[in-house]
Design brief:
By secondary structure, the chain is α/β, with parallel strands linked by helices. Helix content is 31%, strand content 24%. The protein contains 12 helices and 14 strands. An 8-stranded mixed sheet has the order 6-7-8-3-9-10-12-11, with helices on both faces. Strands 2-1-4-5 form a 4-stranded antiparallel sheet, covered by helices on one side. β7 (192-196), α9 and β8 (224-229) form a beta-alpha-beta unit. α8 runs parallel beside α9 (204-221).
Length: 344
């Protein structure tokens, strides 16, 4: 029997089914009166079933836009997916219709949005907002969805959940609202949970409680998680692998231990140096990253971090390095060996 070669898209679909999610060369643009914003610039990554991936970087580096692009949640126009693919269980999310995406959003892929203060509808009860997703994606009765909502609120640590269902968001503290957001995201037991800086607006004590809660729920439900944050300190005990983003590019990707023990990109080194540590001497000052984030209205010709980098030399300003492996499970986009300070 003569074997017929796979068509290109069939090969890609077959190849990408080995991962829960495989993103390749994602580029997202925004057309504005001032010009084109180069928000995401050729991002590629994969996610294994049951893994927790942290996406780290300063505000405006493209973390949230990357995930919103995958779920079809950026406004078009002015937003535009310029190129790329995002295979989730063999389906390219970027090629699905709005109706097809609605079958996946909330049911298979759920998202905890950045600000619990504004993400909840102020004129709808907590119960209405939690049960809405279940009414859309399940065949549960009204009574069953309410019982399930009570179970979810108990699971995220809210006392007297039956009473809380009939209350409104303004009656909850910031930490309780974030717990409600988590309960909403878990309502249909998604395979993939995207948490977009879920601890940013909370104090340190509540941050720790939310992280512990997510770890416990992940172990109980076997979820895969993408955790977006600008704080490297949060993900030490949470993530399996880390992606560091800058100006819409991935500049370093490694296992979480390697990010802390052996960071190899100057931007990652700068982020770690700016992190408060308990072993700092009393009079030792925190380090800051010099300069300002790049103007995303201008597509960089060289490395976007070059103007802020203490290691930069002429090639860095002329040519943007590719993201390439330097060892097993460790990739960087840099012309410099930060250990020696010499070009690679």
């Amino acid at each position: 029997m003569v074997q017929v070669p796979l068509r290109h898209h069939e090969f890609i679909e077959q190849n990408f089914m080995t991962y829960l999610l495989e993103v390749n060369d994602l580029k997202t643009r925004f057309r504005t009166p001032e010009g084109t914003v180069f928000a995401v610039n050729g991002v590629s990554f994969h996610l294994e079933d049951g893994e927790t991936l942290a996406v780290v970087g300063e505000s405006g580096c493209g973390k949230s836009v990357t995930m919103l692009s995958l779920l079809g949640l950026i406004p078009i126009p002015p937003g535009e997916i310029a190129s790329g693919s995002a295979f989730y269980r063999g389906k390219d999310l970027l090629k699905l219709t709005d109706i097809q995406l609605e079958d996946i959003r909330g049911k298979e892929i759920a998202m905890i949005f950045q600000d619990p203060m504004t993400s909840l509808n102020p004129v709808l009860t907590i119960g209405r907002q939690i049960t809405e997703t279940m009414c859309t994606h399940t065949n549960l009765s009204k009574k069953q969805t309410r019982e399930r909502a009570i179970e979810l609120l108990q699971a995220v640590g809210i006392s007297d959940p039956g009473r809380c269902l009939d209350e409104f968001p303004h009656q909850f503290s910031g930490g309780m609202r974030q717990r409600v957001m988590i309960a909403m995201a878990l309502s249909c037991e998604p395979a993939l949970l995207i948490a977009d800086e879920p601890t940013t607006a909370l104090d340190v004590t509540i941050q720790a409680q939310i992280v512990e809660l997510v770890i416990r729920l992940r172990e109980q439900m076997g979820m895969t998680i993408i955790w977006i944050t600008h704080d490297l300190g949060v993900i030490a005990s949470l993530a399996d692998r880390v992606i560091v983003m800058y100006a819409g590019y991935i500049v370093e990707e490694a296992k979480v231990d390697d990010i802390y023990d052996d960071p190899r990109h100057p931007y990652t080194l700068a982020l770690l140096a700016a992190l408060p540590r308990v072993d700092y001497r009393r009079k030792q000052r925190l380090k800051s990253i010099p300069g300002a984030p790049p103007n995303l209205l201008v597509e960089p010709s060289g490395c976007p971090f070059a103007v802020r980098c203490e290691f930069a030399f002429d090639r860095c300003r002329e040519e943007n390095p590719q993201l390439l492996p330097i060892s097993n499970d460790h990739k960087i986009s840099c012309w410099i060996d930060v250990k020696t300070g010499k070009p690679r």
